[in-house]
From TrEMBL:
A Pfam family per the record: FAR1
InterPro entries the UniProt entry points to: FAR1_DNA_bnd_dom
Superkingdom of the organism of origin: Eukaryota
Domain FAR1 span(s) in chain numbering: 42-131
Phylogenetic classification of the source organism: Eukaryota, Viridiplantae, Streptophyta, Embryophyta, Tracheophyta
Region (Disordered): 81-100
UniProt signal peptide: none
Protein's recorded name: FAR1 domain-containing protein
């Protein structure tokens, strides 16, 4: 199925649904809310499956304070252009067909203060045919399937790294607090020793009792 929508970028006032195999499914729109980043990703992947394209997980913006994800961009896997799609001059090798065609279809979701993930940009139109089988599943090549699997694994590893980073920061803060506490205790001991030494030096009787004469 080829998407022939006239308005590529949808606004919050434009909410449309599609009938795919007798099932009504609402396409994403600006202002649409999700409870989590994962919910937004799953929704767009399901939308892509019904419409007929493969999702590529793209850019992410993180917080510089705690490393949390603040925004995430997803798009069609044919977005952009392959860097090696130009053949070599004077070579018998033919250029490999590019899996990317400069498609602009994309969605951007951001984490709001309310804790909700909100769609802030949605580009609907694709510049290539969209393929849906009779059961509603797309039929990408093995390469596209592998890319999707690896992308999911990278996403999982990214989440693990964020969790480890948070634990490391907590550990370092704890070490810093303990170091500061130890330094303060050491300073108190040194000051007490200096006071005792000063008292001994001032009073000869104390010097005798301490065996210093």
């Amino acid at each position: 199925m080829e998407d022939k929508g006239n308005d590529g970028e949808q606004g919050s006032a434009e909410v449309s649904t599609s009938m795919l195999n007798g099932v009504e499914f609402q396409e994403p729109y600006v202002g649409m809310e999700f409870n989590s980043e994962e919910d937004a990703r799953k929704y767009y992947v399901e939308y892509a499956r019904r419409v007929g394209f493969v999702v590529r997980i793209m850019q992410r913006r993180r917080s510089g304070i705690d490393g949390r994800t603040l925004a995430r961009r997803l798009g069609c896997n044919k977005q952009g252009f392959s860097p090696n799609n130009k053949g070599t001059i004077g070579s018998e090798k033919k250029p490999r067909p590019s899996a990317r065609e400069g498609c602009k279809a994309t969605i951007l979701v951001k984490l709001e203060k309310s804790g909700k993930w909100v769609v802030t940009r949605f580009v609907k139109d694709h510049n290539h045919p969209l393929i849906v089988t009779a059961n509603g599943f797309i039929t990408p090549g093995d390469k596209d399937k592998k890319i999707e699997e690896l992308t999911k694994e990278l996403e999982r590893q990214d989440q693990l790294c964020a969790a480890y980073r948070e634990k490391l920061i907590s550990f370092m803060n704890n070490v810093e607090e303990q170091t500061q506490e130890l330094s303060e205790k050491t300073q108190i001991i040194v000051e007490n020793l200096r006071k005792v030494e000063s008292e001994v030096q001032k009073n000869p009787l104390n010097r005798k009792s301490w065996g210093l004469t």
